[in-house]
# Entry
Amino acid sequence: MTQFTRILKTTRRALFGKAFLLAIGLTAATAPAAYADALSDILEQKRIVVGVVNDFPPFGFLDAQQNPQGYDIDVAKAIADDLGAELELVAVSAANRIPYLTSKRVDALVASLGITPERAQQVLFTDPYAATQSTVLAPQATSIEAIEDLVGKRVAVARGSSNDIFFSEVAPQGATVMRFDGEGAASQAMLANQVDALVMTNTMVPAVVQSRPDLNLETKVLLRQQENAIAVRRDETALAERINAILEEMKSSGALGELYHKWTGADLPEFQGNNPAN
# Structure
């Protein structure tokens, strides 16, 4: 072997070694960061950030001292306690709830989020922990046993609300739908005897009934039930499973029912299991 050949082979080996090391370095530099599991992070940092609404009593609202209160807040506290984590509450709105979650500004949403197929494409829902019901309210003396009995009657509803949208789809022909600007205005029409019946969310019924006990208002028809669930990011299955375990224990012990009754005055609904993510 000539001296030139030996030099050439040595040079090739050196170049190959450098190229190999460079390739390893590039692979390490471009490899994706290790997956960060939210549940592990929460348990390690002993801190969970939860998005809640503050404009939807009795589920979430601000008290006289501007402190968040309500059913959602108490459920969030129970979850944090079970995880041994400090709870940080972040106010969210109906419009920005899901963006706050997907952008990782919060770890979870306990924010009166109704389960829908469209939302299930964006978030991972837990099992239901609450539900709101669309009901028909009317004086006891008014004969209404089914939705068909609203024919010929004036029915108040808050314009543009979910109750308005749903009732417009199922209202029998011959019922007069009277739309008002907001739940308050629709309720006042009922209290002033301007309408025969009122379509509203069940959690608001007690306040309306108590404001005019002489009318003997009562729930006549349950139109539908909208179940709410806690939401986490779609890839956070471990966190969702842990929250489900906490909710199941709270349901079994009666703790969840106690919280629900405390804030709504009603029994915890029987959930229909209509989670499209399951």
About this structure: Residues 133-224 form a domain with the D-Maltodextrin-Binding Protein; domain 2 fold (CATH 3.40.190.10). The chain has a mean pLDDT of 86. DSSP finds ten helices and eleven strands in the chain. The longest strand covers residues 124-139.
